[in-house]
Amino acid sequence: MDRRKFITNSAIALGALNSAEVAESALQGGAAQGSIGRPVRAVSIGFRPGPSLEQIAALVDQEGARGADLIALPETFRGQNEQSLETLDGPTIKALAPLAEKHRTYIVAPIDRKDGERRLNSAVVLDRRGRIAGVYDKLYPFWVEEFRRKPPVSPGQQVTVISTDFGRLGLAICFDVNWAPLWQRLSDFGAELVVWPSAYSAGKTLQARAIDFSYYIMSATWVPDCLIFDIDGEQLVYEKGNSGDFNITRFTFDLDRCIFHQDLNLPGRLAKLLKERGDDVEREKWLPMEGLFVLKARRPGVSARALARQYGLEERRPYLNRSRSEVDKARGWQFT
C-alpha cells in the first residue's frame, strides 16, 4: 500500500466525537458523580494462552462485578494455531459481549481473526452494551513466527483510536512497540490512553512511547505482567504474576490530567491560573530538566484541561504540532 493511502486509511479509525463531546460524555456516563477529574477504572488481566474460554470469561465477570470501565486481555490470548482462527461473531466475542453489557464495561479482546481469506492479529473493543466499538489489526506482525502460520498473519492497514464515553482509546499490539511513527499517529488522532496487549513486557521501549507522545499506556501480557506509564513517561505500576498463573492489575486513570511545556505558559499564564483558581486546579508535577509540568483538578466538577484553555495555556502535544508546522513553513513546506 502506498504511504499516502496508509495515512488516509488510518484516519478512518477516528470516532465521531470531538474532545469536548468526549469530556461531556464522560461526565455523564463514564465518571461517577462527585469524582475528581475524569476517572477511568481499568483492569489488565495477563496470562499465557492456555486457560479455557470459560475460565477467562469467569475472570472478566469477576472483575466486571468489582466495577470497571475497561478490561484488557493479552494478545491472541486463545492462541494462534490451526484451531484458533475465528471471526468477529466467533466464540470469544460471543462469550465476552454479554459480560460487557452486564457490567457496563468496555473490553479489549484480542483474537486470532479470520476475515475472508485473511488472517489478522486483532484487538476487538466491545462497548458497554456489548457491541463492537472498533477493531485494530496489528500493523507489524512478528514476521519470524506470524508469517509462518498457515495461513500467514497479514499486516493491518490502519492506526486505530476509538472514541469511548470516557475518552479516546488507542491500541497497539506487541511488536508494534518498535515503530515510533505508529505511536505518533495515535497521538495525532488524540489518544489519551493506549492499551497494549502483548506477548512480552517491552519495558523501557514502551516507556519511551509515553515519554514521547504524552498519553497513558497500559499493557496486558503473556508474561504475565502489567506496566502502566504516566503521561510524562513515569512508571506508575509494575505488577507480575500476582494471582497464580494470572496477573490482575487494577488502576484508575484520570484522563483530565494534562501536560504542558513551559514555553509560552510560564511564568505568566500558569501563575495567573494558579493565583485565581488555585482551589480548583494544582500543578501536580514539575519536571524542570524536561521543561514540563502537569495540571490536575482539585475538586469535583472542575476540568483542569478546560481551565487551562480558558487561561490560554497550550498542552504539550498541540504545542509541539504547532511548532513543527511553524518550522516547516520556514523550510518552505507550507501546505494549503
Short synopsis of the structure:
This protein has 336 residues and is α/β, with parallel strands linked by helices.
What would you note in describing this structure?
The chain has 10 helices and 15 strands. With 336 residues, the protein is α/β, with parallel strands linked by helices. The protein has 2 domains: 252 residues, Carbon-nitrogen hydrolase (Nitrilase/N-carbamoyl-D-aminoacid amidohydrolase, 4-Layer Sandwich); 74 residues. The two termini are 25 Å apart. The relative contact order is 0.13. The N terminus is likely disordered.
Distance between the terminal alpha carbons, to the nearest Å?
A: 25 Å
Q: Radius of gyration in whole Å, from Cα?
A: 20 Å
Top-tier CATH class of the largest domain: Alpha Beta
Sheet with most strands: strand arrangement:
5-4-3-2-1-12
Average pLDDT for all residues:
92
Number of strands: 15
The residue ranges in which pLDDT falls below 50 over 5 or more consecutive positions are 1-9, 11-31
Coarse morphology: globular
Largest sheet: 6 strands, mixed
Whole-number count of domains? 2
- Tally of alpha and pi helices: 10
The CATH topology of the largest domain = Nitrilase/N-carbamoyl-D-aminoacid amidohydrolase
**CATH architecture heading of the largest domain:** 4-Layer Sandwich
The amount of helix comes to 25-40%
Strand proportion, as a percent range, falls in: 25-35%
CATH superfamily of the largest domain: Carbon-nitrogen hydrolase
